[in-house]
Amino acid sequence: MPRDPFDWITGAAAARERAGLVRRLRPRPADDTRLDLASNDYLGLSRHPEVIEGAVTAARRWGAGATGSRLVTGTTGLHAELEAELAAFCGFEAALVFSSGYAANIAAVTALTGHDTLVVSDAGNHASLIDGCRLSRAQTAVTPHADPEAVDKALDAHGGRALVVTDAVFSVDGDAAPLAALAGVAAGHGAALLVDDAHGLGVLGPGGSGTPAAQGVAGGRGVVATVTLSKSLGSQGGAVLGPAAVIEHLVNTARTFIFDTGLAPAAAGAALAALRLLRREPQRAARVREVARTLHEGLTASGLRAIRPDAAVISVPAPLPEQALSWAADCRSAGVSVGCFRPPSVPDGISRVRLTARADLERQDIDFALRTLAATAPRA
Ligand SMILES: Cc1ncc(COP(=O)(O)O)c(C=O)c1O
Question: Which UniProt keywords apply (predicted)?
């Protein structure tokens, strides 16, 4: 009898089970009463009435879907408005909206590189940047985490066209990249700098305008940034921000722009409403940073080895994947949702429980979360 073509999947599943690395989907109830420290809804905007109204109005006016690629029928007035306002808010000349942050990252890396380009990529970068490097077919040098000197050396050794790629705030540990130093190093070699600000928009910089603005590199000549609309802005989608010539180049060459259906009008409308709300209420950004600091201080005070957050993400290493998994499960049973990161999602192989601060958490929420985390922590 011919062999079952999916036999190998059973073996792979058994190996995952033995290693404690099985992932399962857990649909969340719409009326979940647990305290949410797992989502990326940093500003608490995904359920804000104005943001929901932005989505509803856009769907009524433009329809449920974008109906085609951005280059065919998928661009509405709403997309253009969102691009103009995002670019202005973050301090860049122009912007281009994509159907996800993932697609925006793939587009930026692949469109800004060629066979002769060196990509210098931080070891802690997000999977979407790593996939962009792979798809670019350019030579990639992976440098140690947050190490501008190593980037300098890699650029020196290459000598030609190059792109330096980094998360602005690293999604696993929540630390910020040294963007000013990296921009200086890149400029010194005539290289471009691509910054993924998925976790910085809405949290860092004046009024939440992002990490490039916070570190004084927004709008710089060789600087391009990407953002997601799915975290602080509570919607869905992504964008690339940069010089107008770069944006026009992306419109003409980026495959995840050209061969993808445009962002749904409802998502564009929600993101635009969230952006306008953030401009009107800039204190939301300061508040999420304050909540993150308070959570970190509380965890440290209870003897947990939490990594100091530069933005909203707070990571607590757990020695074994099973421990991270059961810690997160115990928190969930006690009423607090937290994230759980295990290999292969962690570059150094160390599992973590991950908390995300939200601007709308009250003091009693923070205290409850801290008590729960301490009571359920794995014993050494
Ligand atoms: C650092 C980083 N970059 C990019 C993305 C991808 O963004 P999106 O979820 O909009 O595809 C994420 C989020 O998941 C992220 O954490």
Answer: Acyltransferase, Biotin biosynthesis, Pyridoxal phosphate, Transferase
